[in-house]
Amino acid sequence: MSNPGNRFYEFGPFRIDPARRLLLRDGEIVPLTPKAFDTLFALIQNNGRVIEKDELMKEVWADTNVEEGGLTRNISVLRKALGESLDDHQYIVTIPSRGYRFVAIVREVLDDGAASLLPEYHKSHSVIEHEEENGSASKSESEAVHEMQEKAPSPSRREAWASKWRAWASKWRLSAVALAVCLLVGLAAGISYFWITSNRNRPKPAEAVKKIAVLPFKPLAAVSRDQILELGIADTLINKLSSIREVTVLSINSVRKYASLDQDPIAAGRELGVDYVLEGSLQMADEKTRATWRLLRVKDGSTILADKCDAQCSNILELQDSIAALVATKLSWSLTSDERRQLAKRYTESAEAYRLYITGRHHFREWSPKGAEKSLEYFDQAIKIDSRYAPAYIGLAGAYWFLGLNGLRPPKEARQKQEAAVKKALEIDETLAEAHASLSGLKQIDWDWAAAEKEALRALELNPNIEASHNWYANYLGNVGRLDDYLLHLTKALELDPHSVKGNSVLGFGFYLTGQYDQAIEQERMVLDMDPNFAAAHAFLWRAYLQKGMYGEAIAEFQKGIDSLGMSRSFAFLAYAYAKSGRKDEAQKMLAELKAKKSYVSPDFFALIYTGLGEKDNAFEWLQKYYEEHRDPDFIKVNPIYDSLHSDPRFKDLLRRMNLPV
After folding, report:
1. 162 and 264: one domain?
2. Same-domain pairing of 237 and 144
């Protein structure tokens, strides 16, 4: 094991003290065998990557041949110690036939002096001391822990203590009374030690993370329906409650389909697989608000929290604050001060700015050029009303990113406006996770990969319960070629948003990037079953068809998904498909038309067509222009569409200049 120095490692409620070989939960010691501790420390040092079983066994049992069963037992012990259930591995994930990955976010911190506050008996008795060298304990870990906690010291240890006492007494000629007093003090200390270790040292059981769905609010009167507001209130409550670590909240994408007036909330909760459902009804008229809401337990349909307000309710913003605070207090055993601050935080006092913002969010969720353009208008209007509205700046940044990526805005213009919006959001609120996630995206466009990872991890630290944190980290991982971790975080984002059309479609694109074309096709077809009009799924599906040589199917799907890409990109991809399918004359004709366009066309679109035509020199000429314009990397390192260029030294040189690993 490497020298830990005076550093600590923290994840969730746990802290690792490598120097003293301690695992603590909320300051209380969690007993572990020495080899179990070594296994955990090795996993943490390799946080985020798959560590092969052989590699892990060599790390833990450096000088001993050990069978895999010893490692399996250690992993089982660790999962129990960390409070993991059979189907909820939030710390250690098994990678079948390979090894394990530690998936929690780990913070490395310098010694702050806290360890010195530990009592000496905690320091010396924090691990189980008897374990055979072949990695399998002579007794089960639970038995060993029980013995450590319940039994008195061994006879040999008692004899050693007695010998020391006799020598000391003889040397100093203590009186019998003094010796008796000392023995009584020692006995009292021993009793105290065993009482503390049998009670205090036992790890607290981990609280199960509660899953909740916030359904779109419904109108008290059907004639006054405002679906954007109904979804917007749910979206706001979701964002507020996502800051609570003990609660997993499904995103708005997962619940938006449950907006019908006759929707049974318990049936929705069962379908979504959550523990609780929050539902409500709302009516706004003449600047007055009336609302009722209930928090329901899905298991038995019982109401565990309910409230209402009539015409004297001041405004929709205060209503949301009140609901979020009451629900969070009910579902969380102990809110931290940071969580309380996040719940109480209100980004605007203007109901009008809020309405404009949620309308912008509504349009951006379409994930199309038209939706992105429309969202810009509403985010901009919200900012004009309230120039300190941080989330509106993040909405603005996201729209410019989408438009720039798809060639609908000149890249320099889109990049500048995206950066200005993100910086303004961080100036207003440095703790906004979405702002750090967006900043990670900017750093990826800058090809500053170290800064991109730092900002993505900061977003995960601030709020690991939102899709954006995992998606932008996944984007970074995919761009640098860490594809196993890329898929892991796409999956984690989808766990937070399992019914998201966009999230499921992006996972399908992840399968495409990793060469799993059959899985990509299956995934995108499932997405189109969920929403036949989701254009991006058609666009992702055609790529997988193309890589499998299914050119007819690829072109047909491409035509259906054309709106998701923007006109220039659509033209380029279709020309590429024609070239790959042997229709090179048509591809050449489209290439000429694209060159004749007076509006901006991204250089990588031309490089794409030349790649399809097999004209490598021309492809690299346009990739050089792509480099000079400092374009979004867009997974260039791993995209199978450039497979024919990967072996060319010019491609490796391009990756080096973009600071990407080769």
Report:
1. no
2. no
**Do 64 and 93 reside in the same domain of the chain?**
yes
Nearest-angstrom CA–CA distance, 48 and 69: 24
Rounded mean pLDDT, 561-586: 81
389/394 Cα distance (integer angstroms): 9
Domain closes at, from 160, 183, 206: 206
What count of other Cβ atoms lies within 10 Å of the Cβ of residue 355?
19
**Token couple for 639:** 């995209």
SS3 letters for 547-580?
HCCCHHHHHHHHHHCHHHCCHHHHHHHHHHHHHH
Looking at the domain assignment, is residue 491 inside a domain?
Answer: no
The first and second tokens of residue 194, run together, are 């065993």
Query: What's the CA gap between 441 and 599, in Å, rounded?
Result: 26
Does the pLDDT of residue 167 top 50, yes or no? no
- Provide the pLDDT confidence category of residue 548 given band limits of 50, 70 and 90: very high
The angle subtended at Cα 608 by Cα 606 and Cα 609, nearest 5°, is: 70
Does position 560 have pLDDT exceeding 80, yes or no?
Answer: no
Q: Are 440 and 459 in contact (CB under 8 A)?
A: yes
Q: Which of 291, 175, 285, 193 is nearest to 234 (CA)?
A: 291
Residues 315 and 256 in one domain: yes
**Alpha helices (H) in 11-140, listed in sequence order:** 34-45, 53-60, 68-82, 120-124
Burial of 584 (0-12, 13-18, 19+ CB in 10 A): middle
Domain span including residue 336: 210-346
- The answer on 169 and 194 residing in a single domain is yes
The domain total for the chain is 3
Same-domain check for residues 134 and 195: yes
Asked whether the predicted pLDDT for residue 644 surpasses 60, the reply is yes
Of the chain, the end-to-end C-alpha distance in Å amounts to: 29
402 vs 372: CA distance, rounded Å:
7
Q: Phi then psi for 638, rounded to 5 degrees? A: -115, -5
